[in-house]
Amino acid sequence: MSHTMRAISGMIVIAGAWFLQGCAAPEPSQDLLAPTEAQMKLRSFQSRTFDVKDRQLAMRGVIAVLQDLGFIIERANEPLGLVTAARFAEPNFYDVLGVTVTVRQQQEGRMLIRANAIYNNKPIEDPKVYQNFFAALERSLFIAKE
Amino acid sequence: MTGRGLLAGVCLILSGLAAGCVTPTQPAEFFQLTPESPRNKAMQTRFFETKDEAELLSASAAVLQDLGFQVEESVQDVGFLRATKERSAREYGQDIGRFFAFLLSFGKFIMPVDLHQKIAATLVARPINPEGTRQEVRIMFYRVVWKGDGQADRQYIPPGQQKMEMLRDPVMYQQFFAKLSKAVFLEAFTL
User: pLDDT tens track of chain B, all 191 residues?
Assistant: First the structure.
């Protein structure tokens, strides 16, 4: 009898300990904010450098190409080199595609252009999308230079 | 035997749920020029032989004001303007359609009709040659329409359903540029 009791109480202790462990909040890991490899990769295909003389010229090129692609320019901030635009995923008007482009001078005559695109508030992580955007931008900046 | 059938059923349901979670195809093609792009660009763009970009921009704002728009955003350094106006979106055609739908469904279906709309314009002016003697003005119009309420059988359809669309009526653009060229005393060129 006492043998079974002891076994049961032992089980209860183990179960209790297990429950307690479940209640403890998980410790945030040390590298929570450290960049992961996926983030680095994403950043690398979202950015590209272009040989453009000044930032305003590059920004105007970005705005022109976004308009060519059918985007509505929503906001622009020249001092910060920021352009925000959006478009409907035509022919369907319920899905919205948004994009934020930043233009920063990396060194004299070289501009770092970074684009972040979202589709229905979800970030786009497909490199093809950014390749297409930069291809169109390159063409537009090249035409503007002539 | 039943156990296996049950398991297969659960697997099927789970895979169905998983399929529901899959994100829609990534829109790579939205960053590519389409066959319509050059046509839209030609419709939305005019050229002006002037050095004065600021004057062109302020005249554009004035024309938009004449058309009843409120300027909401302006950035002179990149020649950018955004303006909106809100108007009623009631159309007789839709009300007639609503009436017949009501009759034909024996009073069971009350179709929601367009009630209110917000028309917006974004405009960008920029020099297109290095000397800055020739300017390009590009404007795009679009609108958001809100529908009123309705009813389908016993199901009430709440108001506020939205629809958005780009406005691609060439007449609208021609009228805007006619007014703009009058305002700056300059002829507007197309490509």
Answer: 455 555 455 444 444 444 444 444 456 677 888 888 899 999 999 999 999 999 999 999 999 999 999 999 999 999 999 999 998 888 888 888 888 888 888 888 888 888 899 999 999 999 988 888 899 999 999 998 998 888 888 888 888 788 888 899 999 999 999 999 999 888 787 76
ipTM of the complex in this document = 0.74
A11 touches chain B (CB under 8 A): no
Q: Do A63 and B78 touch (CB under 8 A)?
A: yes
Q: Burial, A44: exposed, middle or buried (Cβ in 10 Å; 0-12, 13-18, 19+)?
A: exposed
Strands annotated E in B11-113: 45-48, 70-75, 80-88, 109-110
Q: What is the pTM of this model?
A: 0.75
In A7-77, the DSSP E strands lie at: 47-50, 72-77
Could you tell me which chain A residue has the CA closest to the CA of B162? Answer: A94
Range 18-77 of A in CB contact (< 8 A) with B: 56, 59-60, 63-64, 67-70, 72-77
Distance from the Cα of A69 to chain B's closest Cα (Å) equals 6
